[in-house]
Amino acid sequence: GAVVSQHPSWVICKSGTSVKIECRSLDFQATTMFWYRQFPKKSLMLMATSNEGSKATYEQGVEKDKFLINHASLTLSTLTVTSAHPEDSSFYICSARDSGTSGTGELFFGEGSRLTVL
Amino acid sequence: AQSVTQLDSQVPVFEEAPVELRCNYSSSVSVYLFWYVQYPNQGLQLLLKYLSGSTLVKGINGFEAEFNKSQTSFHLRKPSVHISDTAEYFCAVSEGTGGFKTIFGAGTRLFVKA
């Protein structure tokens, strides 16, 4: 099956620093990837849609200057949390849709990245 | 815009008992429906999906779900649960346009007791 890899799976950083999280589709191409944020015991909140070769589409209320998304290739999207603060601590999950799979809409998920900002 | 409602935040059940996790959705267009499972500190794994055709969908680990268009529901069922089924279950809806943006319900915590 399709595999999505996220890295790092776990990161601790100091307040004010920036952290980059990578999301890779290992065995398929993904023109579209999605970034979700999950708070403890809560559902997944869609942050943005990452489009290969173009700007990401952010959901209402998500700061695009705080959460920078780059989708430079068909297999890689990155999320950079800039000037991180403790309230940015969360579980970030990426997902990708197989561009070769016609019309199913099924998403393949990474294992998630737990960010802790001190 | 689509939305998803999972009616139960927690469902405790004894091992080998049947279980149903409820999900209702709303959308102005045709949708695709999914159930995902999440184990602690892990990503999501697809249990099953409804795209079209038969309204009864069978998935992995003995789960099945039935799409009911008139009631806009997609309830998940399993006739006999195991301890290992303890996890968080998310119902999700994806509209077949706009890049298949997927919205998730709040999740239902299934807790299987011995």
Q: Can you offer a commentary on this structure?
A:
- The complex is a heterodimer of chains A (118) and B (114).
- Chain A has 118 residues and is mainly beta.
- Chain A is 0% helix and 51% strand.
- In chain A, strands 2, 4, 5, 6, 9, 10 and 11 form a 7-stranded mixed β-sheet that branches. A 4-stranded antiparallel β-sheet of chain A has the order 1-3-8-7, with no helix packed on it.
- In chain A, strand 5 (44-51) and strand 6 (57-58) form a beta hairpin.
- Chain A is globular.
- The N and C termini of chain A lie far apart (37 Å).
- Chain B has strands at residues 3-6, 10-14, 19-21, 23-26, 31-38, 44-50, 56-58, 64-68, 73-78, 87-95, 102-104, 108-113.
- Chain B has 114 residues and is mainly beta.
- In chain B, the strands form 3 sheets. In chain B, strands 2, 5, 6, 10, 11 and 12 form a 6-stranded mixed β-sheet that branches.
- In chain B, strand 8 and strand 9 (73-78) form a beta hairpin.
Radius of gyration of chain B: 14 Å
Instruction: State the end-to-end distance of chain A.
Output: 37 Å
Mean residue pLDDT of chain A: 90
The helix tally of chain B amounts to: 0
Task: Please give the largest β-sheet of chain A.
Answer: 7 strands, mixed
Question: What's the helix-strand series of chain B?
Answer: EEEEEEEEEEEE
Q: Based on DSSP secondary structure assignment, what is the total number of beta strands of chain A? A: 11
Number of strands of chain B: 12
**Structural class of chain A, please?**
mainly beta
Can you give the helix content of chain B as a percent range? under 10%
Low-confidence stretches of chain B: none
Question: Which band does the percent of strand residues of chain A land in?
Answer: over 45%
The radius of gyration computed from the alpha-carbon positions of chain A, rounded to a whole number of angstroms, is 14 Å
What is the overall shape of chain A?
Answer: globular
